[in-house]
Amino acid sequence: MELLKQRILQDGRCYPGGILKVDSFINHQMDPMLMYKIAEEFIRRFQDCPINKIVTIEASGIAPAIMVGYIMRLPVVFVKKKKPKTMENMLSTVVHSFTKDRDYTVCISNNFLTPEDHVLFIDDFLAYGNAAMGMIELAEQAGAVIEGMGFIIEKAFQDGGNLLRGRGIRVESLAIIDSLDDCMIAIR
Ligand code: 5GP
């Protein structure tokens, strides 16, 4: 997606350890006009999939996911990173966080992820695919089908894309970063 690529080159910043900071338009301050266009592009790419629900993981996936849900008129559910004491019928799994380098338990109510669901999973970044694998595990527990996974930015030099595509998941990434070596952003 050309507009997104230009924005990453203009405003993205590289950090050691293969981290791309996009907190002036995605991760902290958000650009809703760009987010809307991102959502339209996800919808275009997944238009042939029988999706009835958008699922994401808090926090940075929520903004693009709600835009997609709004345009498609579909419900949006976010996977929580903390177990609420009041949640009943909870499905949970453990995910390793690449940016924070720790494991955490993620959960979703099985009232909102059911065998009737055909899910489009949306997230900001695809790195090693840990969050996405957690989503696959939750969908398996729920008996839901994952129709596809859409990421705003995929870092192709980390292995999440290969992992997911190797499992037969339909993956669409709107910008693919080939390298962040020497603090240079190389976009495909
Ligand atoms: P994964 O689970 O694929 O290893 O990592 C994806 C998650 O880690 C995303 O939800 C995102 O929040 C975070 N993440 C991974 N790499 C980056 C990065 O380069 N920059 C930012 N801002 N977040 C990242």
Description of the molecule:
- This protein is of the alpha/beta class and 188 residues long.
- The protein contains five helices and ten strands.
- The chain has helices spanning 2-11, 32-45, 62-72, 130-142, 160-166, and strands spanning 13-15, 19-21, 53-57, 76-79, 90-97, 102-109, 118-126, 145-155, 171-179, 186-187.
- It has a six-stranded mixed sheet. A two-stranded antiparallel ribbon has the order 1-2.
- Strand 3 (53-57), helix 3 (62-72) and strand 4 (76-79) form a beta-alpha-beta unit.
- Helix 2 crosses helix 3 (62-72).
- The longest helix has 14 residues, at 32-45.
- It is globular, with a radius of gyration of 16 Å.
- It starts with a helix and ends with a strand.
- Bound molecules: guanosine-5'-monophosphate (5GP).
Structure, briefly:
The chain has 188 residues and is of the alpha/beta class.
Features of the shown structure:
single chain, 188 residues, alpha/beta, 6-stranded mixed β-sheet, two-stranded antiparallel sheet, 5 helices, 29% helix, binds guanosine-5'-monophosphate
Sequence-ordered SSE layout with sheet pairings:
Layout: H1 2-11, E1 13-15, E2 19-21, H2 32-45, E3 53-57, H3 62-72, E4 76-79, E5 90-97, E6 102-109, E7 118-126, H4 130-142, E8 145-155, H5 160-166, E9 171-179, E10 186-187
Helix pairs in contact: 2-3
Bound molecules: guanosine-5'-monophosphate.
